[in-house]
Amino acid sequence: MHGFAGFHGWQWLYIVEGIPPIIMSFVVYMLLTDRPHEANWLTTEERTWLQKRIDSEQTQREAVRKYSLLQAFSDHKVWLLTLAYFGQNISAYGLVFFLPLIVKGLGVSAEWIGFTAALP
Asked: What is the value of pTM for the model shown?
């Protein structure tokens, strides 16, 4: 399609790959709803069953305990999980950023540093 309608081939690639998601965005916007009772594409029985299921799950969730934001931040388990997540991210970023230098320090040639660092 290079040269067709004055576009280059790579421009046609963007157009051809971009049209289906744009069309589907309108379709999804029209079909998906916030609540089951608004979903016209479901039968009445399906809507009723789904709404009852969502309500029962919400009741079960609230029956366990409902936390406020202040209560969540004052819980020591939240802070321990935050610390673990922080440590995991710091170590992962350190590995990603400095592994090529470590591999280079092991004497690997410049052409093979990327391939060797990609193995782990």
From this structure: 0.43
